[in-house]
Structure prediction request, 116 residues.
Amino acid sequence: MFGSFEEWFYRSLLGINPLTPAFEKFVIKPQPAGDLSWVKGSYESVRGNIISEWTKNGDAFSLHVVIPANTTALIYISSNENAVITEGGKAIKPLRYEDGYAVIETGSGEYNFMAK
Prediction:
């Protein structure tokens, strides 16, 4: 049902949204709300399990994602342009910054992003 809690949870809090049919390409753009400090969940797409989990602690934002095989994702990490973005402890350079997010494009795999 449109407007249901589940849709809000997947599309907004987890931020999982398709860009192409069958989730060949999709977005993960978590939208922290209120005083929530963490969210964890997954979506079983036709291409495999997509995982999005995040924690927010002060100015630090961490995001763990799993991208299924043969797919690509645009990952939006809540941060400002002065933040240091890391993946697996190594500094990375985002494609761009957009409305309070660092944007990364990646293929299949498991990733741990941090913005401080």
Notes: The first strand starts at residue 16 and ends at 18. The chain has one domain: 5-115.
